[in-house]
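Per reviewer request, we include the raw input and output of the structure prediction for the construct analysed in the revised manuscript.
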Amino acid sequence: MSKPVVVRLGQVKYAQKAWEELAKIAQVVPVDPSVTRAQFLSLCEDPESPISKAEVLTRTFPSVQNTGRFDAELAKKLPESVVAVCHNGAGYDQIDPSPFNQRHIQISNVPELVNNSTADTHVFLLLGALRNFEYGRRLMIEGKWPSSGAAAGAPVGNDPEGKVVGVLGLGGIGRAIVERLKPFGFKKFIYHNRSRLSPDLENGCEYVSFDELLAQSDVVSINIPLNSATKHKINEAAIEKMKDGVVIVNTARGAVIDESALISALKSGKVRAAGLDVYEHEPQVPQELLDLPNVVGVPHMGTHSVETIQKMEEFVVENVKSVIKSGKVLSIIPELKKEEWIKDSKPLV
């Protein structure tokens, strides 16, 4: 009996052993990193290519360079045999769920394993922005210390005490952030989700409307996924409703913020500082944004740790094994959770 074919898009950094184990029950087909979207789509329809016999695809965030978006065109071109796409990441905005749903192809992500590493990054950026640490670091590198006085002339920052943190998106990452911030002495935590959470998930946070969150927060902590409803959620109008001198921190997805509106607000002082791990058109970041000393920015490093990357890669393999043995992925994305057709999914072996 032939093994199920698993097509792997993207590189494996730390989970080689997990993939070696998977190879015992599946035919693993790595896709050459030089492949283009046009070539990949062609291989999907080439009966001589093992890709045309794929039953499960795994993908990484950088593999979008090989395939482009997982959109309607790509979903249509995938072999009839494909039953699941296992994505390595919590955010899956590179995938359009609808056309895959229509084809009865499951989509999985890695939802919980990123929480701690992302929350650690968020707290670093939040405290750095609140205290103007990046401003001082740049001035020191420019040789302005001690010639420009205390802290090399950086503006005086603020302590957490007495400040209100507004958490936009109190999911797993949002709750992990709140737990880490509590010891710093913030006055209170408020949050906004599409609907209020049960008290046991609120972590002591107060539920407010979106406009109330904007109006009350000294720090706006962004932790929502990117989709058609959340793109540019933080735009010029939303920023106008915030306190003067607000601090904005984003480790979710760049396009949740209208970047041009943020740049204008950072220049005017309406937004005093920002902590950013993600950008609207990354890896391209506007020079205008990079030049601002009141931005603490890192190049999408939220889960850039050996331990987290390895756990994520290994969980992708677990999702694949689950499809092979049970017919179902372990972590179906929310958009597909209630679909009846998934109940009829059969093991591949």
